[in-house]
Please model this.
Amino acid sequence: MTTNKISAVFDTELEKVLVDLNLWDDIQQKNLKCYFCQNLITLENIQYILPIKNKIRIGCNKPKCVLKISFFTKNAF
Amino acid sequence: MPFSLKDIDSFINNHPRLGYFILFFLLFFWIINELVKNHPLYLQLLAKILIPLAKLFKFKKLQKAAIKSDIQGKINFVTNLISKEIPHEAIRPLEIQWIKDLANTNFIQENKILVRMKPVDSQDENLLNVAQPYLESILIPKSRLLIQETQKKAIIYFTTKEIISSNENLLRKFHEEYYLPDCKKHQSIEEYFKKIDLTYKKGLFFSIGITALEEAANKHRFKRTDLGSDFAQILDHLVTFINKLNTQNNINSELKWNFLGSGISYGLLLVARPNVAMIGKISPYVKRAEEKLKICEMLFIVFSHREKNFGYQVANNIESELDINFVEELKTKFDYRGENNGIVRIYVKK
Model:
C-alpha cells in the first residue's frame, strides 16, 4: 500500500542532520531565526527544517508557527 | 555475544518442547506483524505496550518504534474514517520515515519537510507537530490556498481534536495552547468550528461540505478564485438545512434544498423515513431530482443506512431516468439524524 511519508529526525540524531545541512555553526553562534516568527532558533526550540525557494529554513515549536508550516506542505508528504 | 544458529539448535535439542513452542510463537508473531503492521488499531495497541517500555528503558530504537506506532496509529485511525466520507481517492496512510543523516541526499531538491521528534516523554507534542500540517495537506488539497486562513484553521482544529479526543490531558493542552489563543485573535475560527462540528455530527460536513468545496477548487484551479465566501455559504446552508430539518414536521416544506454559489451549485435529495402512503412511490423523488438538476451542477442523495433499501431504489431510478453521472458513494460515520451510519451518493449533471 502506498503511504504519505513524512520525514522525521529523532532528538539525539538532530545534531548530525544539522551538521550535514551546514546549520550547526549558525545555531551555536545564534545566527538563525524562525522563518515564521523571527524568534531566535536554539537547539531546544527547533521544530521543522524545510526547504523554501531553494534555501533551508527553520521553524520553531510555537503553536502559531506549527500551523504556518502547513502552508508549505504541498508535496511535502 | 549474540546467539548463533548452533546455540539455537542445541537449545532445541536440549529442550525440544519449549524450543519449538518459542519458535512457533516467534513465527506466529512475525506473520501477524507482517499482516497487520499498518493497521491503525494494531499500531495503537503496539504503542500502548511500547510507550511505557520506552519511558522506562530510554533505548533509542525502542523510543523511535514507540513514537512511530503511536503517531501513525492515532492519525491513520481517524483519517481512515474520514477517507470514507471524501470522494475520489482514499487518503493514503501516514508513514513516519526516520532520517539519520542527510550527507548523501539533496534535501533542498527533494522538497520534503523534516520534523523533529522529541523523546517519548514529549509524545503529545510530537503528535500535534505532525498531525496539524499533515491534515491540511490531505483533507483539502485543492482548496487550501483558496479559502480563508480562519476557515482552514477551523477544519484542522476540528480534525485534530477528533484524533486526540481520547486523551483528556492532551485535549486540554491543545484547547488552551492552540485553539483558544487563536480564537481570541480571530473569533470566526470558533464560529466555523461550531458549524463544522454540527454538520459533521449529521454526516454532512466532509461528504457534502468538503466535497463541494474541493469540486469548486477543481473547477477554478487555473483562476485561483477566492472560495472563502463560497465555503462560508456552504456551511451556512448545511447548518440552516439541519436546523430546519430538526424543527420541521413536514420536512418537504420551507427547507432550502439547493445551494447556488458563485463557485459551485448543488441540490440535496433526502430519502427519509418513507411513510406508509409513500412506500413504493419513487416517482416524486425522481421528479424532485430532475427539478434540482435544472439549476444545480451536483446532486447529493442522502439517506440513512437503516433505510438503505428504499434509498437505493430511489437512487437506481434516478440514475436510469435522468441524464446524470454517478460519481461515488460515501459512507458517513453519522447519518442526517445524528445516528450511526449514513450514506451519501454523489451525482453530476452530464
Remarks:
- Chain A touches chain B at residues 1-14, 16-17, 20-21, 46-51, 54-56, 61, 63-64, 66-67, 69-70, 72-77 (CB under 8 Å).
- The CA atoms of residues 30 and 40 of chain A lie 7 Å apart.
